[in-house]
Amino acid sequence: MQKFSEIVYERPDTNAFMGKIEEYMEKLPLAGSYEEAKELFLWMNSEADHLDTMNTVASIRNTINTADEFYEKEVEFMNSELPKIQLKMKEANKLLLESPWLSEFEKDFGELYFLNIKNRMRLADEKIIQNQIRESQLTQQYAKASAVCTATFHGEEVNFYGLLKYMQSTDRAVRKEAFEAWAGLYESVSGELDKIYDELIKVRCEMAEVLGFSDYIEMAYLQRERYDYKKEDVAVFRKQIEETVVPVCRRLFEEQRERLGIETLHYYDEALVYPEGNAVPSGTKDEMIEKAGKMYHELSHETGEFFDFMVCNDLFDLETKPGKRQGGYCTFLADYKAPFIFSNFNQTSADVDVLTHEAGHAFEAYIASRLLPLSEQSWSTSEIDEIHSMSMEFFTYPWMELFFGGDADKYRYAHLADALEVIPYMACVDEFQHEVYEGRVTDAKERRNIWSRLEKKYLPWRDYDGNDFLENGGFWMQKQHIFLFPFYYIDYALAQMGALELYGRMKENREEAWNDYCRLCRAGGSKGYFELLKEAHLSNPFAGGTVEKIMGQIKKEL
Known about the structure:
The chain is mainly alpha-helical. Helices cover 66% and strands 4% of the residues. Its cofactor is Zn(2+). Keywords: Hydrolase, Metal-binding, Metalloprotease, Protease, Zinc.
């Protein structure tokens, strides 16, 4: 393939694509053999891949520069067209499920693929098209509102990510100043973000009502293809976190307070693990990529081949800049079987985490897409996909000297401690969303009260040093998943259990652990959640005692 920057974007002709769906629907029932039906099916999937690739190119370029009006309009166009396409595909999928060759299709492509089709048919309805378009518009508004936020700090124009770097300063006054500026940025747009979220709640709940779901939570679980567990199971998992992980984190933060030699650990102290300063990677973006290349070549033949592909085709956008969307992600260009990594480097250890975490996602998609027949199967559901990414962070521990030199052990300790310390926050975000959608809470003050109460439960060490906005529950706004990907956050905690379990196994038999990990990656999204856990010999995180067992291993390691 050519470099990402050289890919020519053309707006998909959605009318022509709808015509191809019609053609597919006409020919499929007339197929005289399974081979003929299969050829039609693969042709339709190939056409869908091309449309998806163009949509993804536009989306990536829009997130790289949210001020680029051309790609903003292209994303808006596709967001308005996709619900109509999904509705047409619902008709086509109905024909596929009625095909006399269905059992042969299931044998070749797996039963899960057809379960997903049935699920998508349940979620597609022309009555909610306008709601879906409005939801997309609102999420775009959110992404743009948060991306354009900047402040001048110590003579530098910085966004949220730029301020996080200063919140790791060894000078406590600078940390506090950066924290106040960071909180101030969120407070400055809080009115706009509240309005966006109010409308998102209304739109999502209305869609669930129209489709006959008991509430939006039930609909969201199906959107996330959660077939193996329900909200009651997630509540049990959160309880395990509260009882087992929170006490460990309290102890870790108390040790950190003592290490820093301060009387009270405030929020702006949490990111500074060592009084002399955190481990910071050395090198420019290009030097970091070069070091990552050496690491992946030494890790395995497969990872070396994968990373060369990423570098040769320039499948990264890593540096933070004005107008760039917050966060990081890995996406996929189906036409090229090519992952793409997006991030915001901020000259902290988080930059290395990108080259391991997002690269874990990308490695899995690169491997699975070359083994499985459909590009859709290149990914699993997020609670499995995040095992790919989080485990790669641990598998790359032996190469941290490349990035941190003599501070590599400091990085490894801080990273492993953080892997535990974020789990209660994940549970807090999840329970917050359950309460908001159960109560259809569109009152901003009530949402802040819910967050404040849950913070005391899951983050009892948290102290905002009198900042009114955050003391009164404003912190929830900084989690973009709440706006963009509802209920996609507990997945990280579920996946972290698998990654930590694999890490414990690495300490005993690294080769065996790597083989289990690669088996999981090769399986992609061809099987369900519990089946995939078995592929990698991983425990069920919902089962009693699983969290406690994993915490026991990790406490010893820390």
